[in-house]
Amino acid sequence: MSKMIRVNSSGQNNHNISNEKLTGSENNHTEDSHFFEESYLPQSVRNDYLSAAEETEYEISTNTRRVYNTSFSLFSRYCAEHKLQPLPADPRSVISFIGHQKELIQENTGVQLSKQTLTTRLAAIRYYHIQAGFHSPTEHPLVIRVMRGLSRNQSRHVSDYDQQPIMYDEVEMLIQAIDEQVHPLIRARDKAIIQLGLQGGFRRSELADIKVQYVSFLRNKLKVRLPYSKSNQQGQKEWKDLPDHEPFAAFDAVKYWLALTNIKDGHLFRSISRDGKDLRPYQIVERNLDANSTLNKNSGFLTGDDIYRIIKKYCTKAGLPARFYGAHSLRSGCVTQLHENNRDHLYIMARTGHTDPRSLRHYLKPRD
Q1: How far apart are alpha carbons 335 and 292 in whole angstroms?
Q2: Cα torsion at 16, 20, 21, 27 (round to 10°)?
Q3: Is 349 within 8 Å of 324 (Cβ atoms)?
Q4: How far apart are the two ends of the chain, measured CA to CA in Å?
Q5: Comparing C-alpha atoms, which of 265, 266, 280 is closest to residue 186?
Q6: How far is CA 37 from its chain centroid?
Q7: What is the pLDDT of residues 299-348, one digit of tens each?
Q8: pTM tops 0.85, yes or no
Q9: Which long-range CB contacts under 8 A does 232-240 form with residues at least 24 apart?
Q10: What is the C-alpha separation between 4 and 78, in angstroms, rounded?
Q11: CA 129/CA 139 separation, integer angstroms
Q12: Residue 252's beta-bridge partner residues?
């Protein structure tokens, strides 16, 4: 939803600048709607205002924005089919949508949508309402009760989202599968991905975002700096120290990949041509260029989804049940392996970037 920001240009003509609404809907009677507003903003501050407003692009990640867009589109279509208003939405419409979604059977798995997926649907509805300046219907007590009941309903047939950890035995099998790859570039890249992902406990998005300039080869360890991560959205100093003496350490694999490709800057993990002989052209486009042009697209590097597919591919080749493994299996394998090697929680958290020891409980089994 947009609001017309009126700019007084030296007392002459008034120009309308369409931009995101700052204080909420004019029909919304919450406290946010009572912020003071100038009747007109002078033309002299126009560029400053638009420059600051551009920062909302980074409010959520690109992947989260994509997922929210998909989820809210599903909700909007449901509302259109039943002649309901999606924005602002009645809490009963949201509950009806959840009732519809929870009964869906996924064709590829034959199971119902998980509670995590349904929660994402609600998060998208909430996000779009807040963006438009409306109070979110997802915060209605009955919506909350419905979701609380879903989390305790054990009769629903849903996927098990807990991916098994990739441990050293599995890594050995994956490396053997990679060694069967005939193209040296692909072999070098994929070994570096598997070993770095496991040793560093990286999320797949973090692996994809690593830049060469953030990687340092020290005397006995590989040091990787993370400008941003899921738990570090404000760009605080964060890095991982990865000793070269650990099993399947990433030091040599990453160093060999860089030596083979002569990559000096930009993304560490690049796309490779179909014949496996060359790196694809690498390009990072400034955001102010025409995003609709095929000439102005980021290209030549792997995404988190690419890394997910690579891990699934080698799990299948290695004879591992791919449905139980994914990119997060490397991260959970890192936690589990360090735990089995008697590392304490603080050491593990320094490696993985977790900020709360309680979040490790999901990965760890009590020691005997």
Answers
A1: 42
A2: 100
A3: no
A4: 57
A5: 280
A6: 36
A7: 888 988 899 899 989 999 998 887 788 777 888 888 888 787 777 677 67
A8: no
A9: 232/353, 238/353, 240/200, 240/201, 240/202, 240/351, 240/353
A10: 30
A11: 11
A12: none
